[in-house]
Structures are given as structure tokens and as C-alpha cells.
Amino acid sequence: MKILEYVEAHEKWRGECINLIASENMSSKTMDRAVCSGFMHKYAEGWPENRYYQGCFYVDKAELEGNSYFYQLFEPEYVDLRPISGATANIAMFFGLTRPGDTLISLHTSNGGHISHAQFGAAGLRGLNVMTFPYDGEEMNIDVDKTCEMVRKESPRLIVFGASLFLFPHPVAQVKDAAEEVGAVIAYDAAHVLGLIAGKRFQDPFGEGAKIVTSSTHKTFPGPQGGVIMIRGLAQEQAANFQWATFPGVVSNHHLHHMAAKGITAAEMLKYGEQYAEQILRNAKALAEALHEEGFTVVAEHKGFTESHQVALDFKEFIGKWAAQTLEKANIITNKNLLPWDPVENSDNPSGMRLGTQEMTRMGMKESEMNYIAELFRKVILDKEDPESVKKEVIEFRKDYQNVLYSFDQDQPE
Ligand SMILES: Cc1ncc(COP(=O)(O)O)c(C=O)c1O
């Protein structure tokens, strides 16, 4: 049996990489302790202090305390840590708030929308009629006027903002009036930007008009793989449907070890979230600027490249796959990405690449390290240096960034 060897080899390798996957992060040892704990061997169906199984007293305390940190960070009226992933949270939202045949407006996958919002994904599985936001590829954002027109004409049941390729805040506030006129509920999928919102460095979806926020808990919010749903201002009946859709709709037992870990991460974000989010954004800007200086086409130059943790590269030819695979040989981990102007048939080999700075920021990197990473990109992609020799540089460079910062690990002796 070699599975443990693979796990350990993976961990060693990850410590020697520059990981720029925008949807991943590193957990603190404090959080790992909860994930690897006896909470994973317990059943706690139901609500804290109202369970179907006995023996949940400590689980209840942990869930209530974890919830309290989410209330402080995001000020919802109701928080639910039970969804076991961001997609599960979205499925609960679709089942709780819509009926088959209802219209949903969400972002097309070629414009950065997530598959769970798509006709061929969870939204379609619910039988929704999915329409996609009119999008402005130049601005890398949703077209406000055309969207308001579409909302007034189509009277959707639900409008879901949020994306997987997400450079700039979405126009939630600008679409709110049109949504209210036709009785549409605005939801916001914060999977990518939850940590930035927690750190008060991105838009405030509830403040701008969203009544539901769904999210993953492991991207810029550096928690365990999992999901969360929060609501504010939803009619009581809708809120009740929503709770039912979560349990017993999409989870029976939730994953208690992950639930505890989400709470710990929220507590870490209360303490360090603002500093962390600030540095993520600085690093994303620095990386974008440095890549531009090195000769790459970085998307949205006229808008300052990015206001999130992400940077998008446009190779201007269909080499996204080659670029990601070649960088991987140098221990630089990225993903190819469809850009709005790519033909959808090219999703396996698009012209773009998406990068995220959240993980390397958590490992302690700052602006000067972003400049160095851009140099490494130039060597591998533009100068076509041997990636195996660049890999040696990466491993050496990475030795100085081995501790998880902006976390309770900082407060504790080794
Ligand atoms: C916008 C968005 N929503 C939902 C999800 C799904 O999250 P999970 O992988 O936790 O199911 C993702 C994942 O990348 C995402 O980018």
C-alpha cells in the first residue's frame, strides 16, 4: 500500500512549488488539527442543540462558536456551515429558491462563470432556464445596461453574481433596482473572493443588494475544502425553504471536522483577514505589472489589470495548455483558462491562463517576490529556457517560504 507515500510526496512537492492556482490555499496547523480530529467520526444531523443523534455536546459548541465568527465577519442574518462544498451550497440555493422552469441569470463559463451556474451543471439539473449575463470582454465585467434590460424583460427568479475568473467586482448595486422591480432575488457566489470580502478589500455583496451569499471555504478564504451559505433580508418563507434544502436536502450528516475547521479559519480571518487581503491584492497588482514589464499580455491593462487575487494572461495564440504544462515542469503551478474571446471549442487549449496570489501570500511572499516570479515566467515561456533548470531555482527560492502566515500558527511556538 503506497497511498500514504503519495500523500507525503505530494506535501513535500507542494512545499517546493510556486502554486498560483487561484482556487487553492494553505491551511494553518491550528486548522489542520481540527480536520484531523475525532469530529470526523461523528454524526450530528440537524441543528446545534437540536440533533437526531446523542453525543453532540462538543460538536454543538464548536458549530455555534464557528457560526459566531461568520456572523462577525459577514453580518448575515443566518449562516449555515453545513454545505460540504461551494457547488453543494449552490445546489441547495437552487432547490430552496427556485422551481423547475424558473429563469436564472448567471455568467457564461467562457466569461468566467462556474459550471454549477450553467445549464449543463447544477442549475440545469434543477431544470432552470439559464440565461447568461451580457458581458463586456474589454471591461472584463458584466454589461450593466444590457443586464438591466434583460432582467426587466425576462423576469428571472434568481440572478447569481460571482465567478471563477473574477478580476473586478460585479455590478450588484447597479442591477439591484431592476431585480427588485421584477421580484428577482440576487445571489452572490463568493467562492473565489470570500477571503477578500472577509478582509474588507472587495465588494460587500449584502450591502450592495444580495440576499444570499454562497461560497467555498478554501480559496482566498484559507479554510478546509467545504462550503457555506449566508442569507440576509430574504423573506421568512424563502429562508425556511432554503434551510430545508440544505438539510435534509443536500446534506444528511455534514462533515463535522471541516465545520470546525471553517470556524477556526473564520477566527483567523477576524484577526488577520484585513492584513492578509491587503497583501493578496498588492501582490496580484505587482505580479500583473511585472508580467507586463517582462513582455506578457496581461488582460485589462487599461483598468490596472486586477482588483482581486487573480491575474489573467492572454497568450494571443492557443498555447494555454502548453504554457501550463511547461511551467509545471519548472514547479510553477497554474491553470490554462478560456478567455471571453476564445471559441468555446477551445476550452481544452485556450489562449489564456489564470493566476492567483492568495497561497504564495499566505506563505509570506510580497511584491518583490512577485517580480521574481514574473522573471521565472519569462525564462520558461518567452526565453524557452530548460524548465528543469528553472525548477532548481524555484526549489531553492521556495525554501524561505515554509510557514503559514496570517494564522494562529504565528501565535504559537514551533
Ligand atoms: C464561482 C465558483 N462557485 C463555486 C465553485 C465550486 O466550489 P467547490 O469546488 O467548493 O464545490 C467554484 C470552484 O471553483 C467557483 O469558482
Tell me what you see in this structure.
- The protein has 414 residues and is an alpha/beta fold.
- The protein folds into two domains: 29-266, Type I PLP-dependent aspartate aminotransferase-like (Major domain) (Aspartate Aminotransferase, domain 2, 3-Layer(aba) Sandwich); 272-410, Aspartate Aminotransferase, domain 1.
- Helices cover 43% and strands 13% of the residues.
- The protein is built from 15 helices and 16 strands.
- The protein has helices at 3-14, 29-35, 57-74, 86-97, 122-125, 144-154, 172-182, 194-198, 205-208, 236-250, 256-293, 320-329, 358-362, 367-382, 387-398, and strands at 18-19, 46-47, 50-51, 78-80, 103-106, 129-132, 135-136, 141-142, 158-161, 185-189, 212-216, 227-231, 310-314, 332-333, 335-337, 352-356.
- The strands form five sheets. Strands 4-12-11-10-9-5-6 form a seven-stranded mixed beta sheet, with helices on both faces.
- A hairpin with a 2-residue loop joins strand 2 and strand 3.
- It is globular.
- It starts with a helix and ends in a 16-residue tail after the last helix.
- 52% of the residues are buried.
- The model has no long low-confidence stretch (mean pLDDT 97).
- Bound molecules: pyridoxal-5'-phosphate.
- Pyridoxal-5'-phosphate (PLP) is lined by residues 23, 85-87, 114, 116, 162-164, 189, 191-192, 216, 227.
